[in-house]
Amino acid sequence: MMKLQLLGATLLASACAAAAANGVAPVHFSGKIVSAANARPQKLAVFADCQDGRARIQGSTDGGAYRIDLPPGITCVMMLGEQTWDSDPQVVFDARTALPLPMRVYPRQVPEPALARELFEMGEQDSAMRHAVAAAPGDAALQQRLARDDGARSRRLAQIIADKGWPTHSMVGAPAARGAWLVAQHAPAQDLKRWLALMQDAARRHEMNLPNLATSVDRVLVNDGKPQRYGTQFHARADGTIVLRPIEDAAHVDARRYGMGLSSLAQNLAVMAPAPQREAARPAAN
Predict the structure, then answer these.
(1) What is the dihedral of CA 41, 47, 169, 232, to 10 degrees?
(2) What is the model's pLDDT at position 6?
(3) pTM for this model (two decimals)
């Protein structure tokens, strides 16, 4: 075992040296492994798939920590797992600026499998309807169906939350929890605002995806007529131009975004539109 460990360390060092020689030194990325469950698996594999098509990158874990070397300037998706445990993937947009966030793991066998399937399907239906509306913006019947379906989904989510609490990773798994979050974004503003406190509590217990939480925080602020905090909210002008809504303390928005696992604002703007027109950010009200 010791020889294998030494061989692995030697190969990793050689790979890093080769990358450095080519002027692309990998970035050492490490952080905590957290679990809302009372237990945590003793052994986990950590790996990353990157957008440039390179072979899957393998890292290492040691107790409650992970370590992996990631290429700079490339978006990679990090995952943890083994046969009986899963994780919420962490997207690293650029390892040079991203902050290593705790990786959340949960038992793959969730205690609410039927609810997990329902929430996942609700999220899929939400996404599918919005893609359909985007593809046919002038279809009034489709718009009416979207509003009707949004209402039905939000009422069902309200019932689930009343019965079970906010759907967390350890309750239904990350994909289903994302489905619940997606439905919540399109629920009536007063419902989202009420549920935000539940999301924040879940995040404190390592049971909520942080980029999703950041989006919900911003949406509630914008709904209340206040500047957003993380720069996740946009609107479209009549000519189709995508416009960023006002941000509080805009000079430090990237630091807040990195802390929530988001890319830089400039990177996000580039994805949203080739040359978006940004409205001037105004400071938050005292």
Answers:
(1) 150
(2) 38
(3) 0.83
